[in-house]
Specification:
With 204 residues, this protein is an alpha+beta fold. The protein has 6 helices and 4 strands, in the order E-H-E-E-E-H-H-H-H-H. It has a 4-stranded mixed sheet, covered by helices on one side. The longest helix is centred in the middle third of the chain and has 29 residues. The structure holds glutathione (GSH). This is Glutathione S-transferase family protein.
Length: 204
């Protein structure tokens, strides 16, 4: 299978991490996400965003959450249907609805030097990011080791991707979140190959 990808994208880190921990071979196709035409590579993704997974059968699956659920089916990283799986879905939806629109946007704005151009937008996204980090801390406050309960799942991978970048926008983790991040990083086969966004004015 192929993963249409960008090395600086934390949305793409999610499937890269899962594929690494599954030991699944795949071809990585870097897409120039700064090229609006995307060289036609993402013609079958309505949003023209990465990541997109192309299966061995030639199906195209966009959206990191959909890719994670597809790849994790039948593996220890996704519980069977029922409450445990609903908890995984809960964190996947949370990530897309609360964490990513706040922290990822604030981080991108800051690293691209856009925070000074639209300070009100930046402040709003930063506050949203902080609220999401608080929610993660609250979710972990009952002492569970991982977001969906006792087991490490795709929910942890999905939420890890942007929450671990909080320092890029000078946000701090509560100890319960820092401990969870460390537990995620200690799982077998963990990789974090997210490349930094170059400082403002350095290209891209
Ligand atoms: N909801 C999507 C978001 C994907 C997304 O925002 N991808 C970014 C890279 S992190 C992208 O392709 N950006 C290019 C653009 O905005 O034109 C997901 O989770 O996969």
């Amino acid at each position: 299978m192929k993963l249409y990808d960008h090395p600086m994208s934390a949305n793409c880190l999610k499937p890269r991490l899962l594929l690494a921990q599954l030991g699944t071979p795949y071809e990585r196709v870097t897409v120039d996400i700064f090229d609006r035409d995307r060289h036609g590579q993402l013609a079958r993704n309505p949003t023209k965003l990465v990541p997109v997974l192309e299966t061995d059968d030639g199906a195209f699956i966009p959206e990191s959450g959909a890719i994670m659920l597809y790849l994790a089916e039948g593996t220890p990283f996704l519980p069977p249907p029922g409450v445990a799986r609903a908890r995984v879905h809960q964190w996947l939806f949370f990530e897309q609805n609360q964490l990513e629109p706040g922290l990822a946007v604030a981080r991108f704005m800051k690293l691209m030097g856009l925070d000074d151009h639209a300070p009100e937008v930046y402040k709003n996204r930063l506050q949203q990011g902080q609220r999401a980090l608080n929610a993660i801390a609250h979710g972990l406050s009952d002492g569970r080791p991982f977001l969906a309960g006792e087991d490490y799942t795709v929910a942890d991978m999905q939420v890890y991707a942007y929450s671990h970048t909080a320092a890029d926008v000078d946000l701090e983790h509560e100890p319960v979140v820092a401990d969870w991040l460390a537990r995620v990083e200690a799982t077998p086969g963990f990789v974090n190959d997210l490349e930094p966004i170059p400082p403002r004015g350095a290209g891209t």
